[in-house]
Amino acid sequence: MGVDPPRREAAEAAGPTVPGAAAGEDVPTGPADGAAHPAPETVSGAAAPAAAGGGGKRPGGRAGRNLPAAIAVGVALGAVTLAALYVVKVLFLLEVVVAVGIGIVELARAFAAKGIQVQVAPILGGMVLMVVGTYWGGPVFLLGSFALTLMVTLAWRMLAPPGSAKGVVAATAGYVRDASASAFVCAYPALIAGFVPLLLAEDDGPHRVVVFIAVTICSDIGGYTAGVLFGKHKMSPIISPKKTWEGFAGSALSCVVCGALLVRFLLDGEFWQGALLGAVVVIFATLGDLIESVIKRDLGIKDMGTLLPGHGGAMDRLDSLLFTLVPVWLLLYLFG
């Protein structure tokens, strides 16, 4: 069917579109208020491609995934992670640095699509300092290195304003906007990732990391399975249309069972402690997924990237892990 001229003109005025996260619909990526955002030329001095990493619709079933590819990537990542954890623990920190570093670049590119400049260089350097240094320096080092990273990042934007214009206007225009986004990325994911070495540094550190990752993954697997088989009642139709309460119940069941078993047999804890940990994980993992969905909807993209077939970008896999990391570390610390 053809498109009548008024509708065609309205569609063109709305700006370019990317596949929507809801059901493959196109959503406009142009400014909602009608004011044109400046086209970002750089992301901290580097070329900033558009953040429509989703490209087109991903092949898959009801949950919108290429399931065979997702399983293959998941198994490969799991094998690499276990090998790093139990052969040379410090190698796992390298894996964390690479994954979180890619996530930071993905976030910067996504913000750049809206004309927001994230200061990538100082954030990447600070993230490496937080992840690697905290393994030996502990929580105090993590806090201090985060504060230092934040201060350097704020100064970086002031001393290296975007664009070719010079003077006070160039140095101050959009500073609060860019500095706020940069501070956000300093905390999420850079600061949160610094809790990984706090888990790993314990005598049973590899076991603790396995518990953290396995229980969080069970939230995804249980929710996916229950949602596909039984999902009818939408949890949040606007934010994440594919999430259902049935899927949440599946996540909760799998997390509680997995947590109880792993804490009991890997960490010599009590079944109730593991069950409590699993219940906390499912809440925070779900929040992480929903918050990532809100960010992507606000930026008008479907995925943060295309690095992992069947999964999207690095941040699309790190979202729930980042949100469960701190609660798991705190609970295991309290359990002793």
TrEMBL record:
Pfam families: CTP_transf_1 (PF01148)
Pathway: Phospholipid metabolism; CDP-diacylglycerol biosynthesis; CDP-diacylglycerol from sn-glycerol 3-phosphate: step 3/3; Lipid metabolism
UniProt KW keywords: Cell membrane, Lipid biosynthesis, Lipid metabolism, Membrane, Nucleotidyltransferase, Phospholipid biosynthesis, Phospholipid metabolism, Transferase, Transmembrane, Transmembrane helix
Membrane association type: Multi-pass membrane protein
Region (Disordered): 1-59
Protein family per UniProt: Belongs to the CDS family.
PANTHER family assigned to the protein according to its UniProt record, in alphabetical order: PHOSPHATIDATE CYTIDYLYLTRANSFERASE (PTHR46382:SF1)
Protein name (database record): Phosphatidate cytidylyltransferase
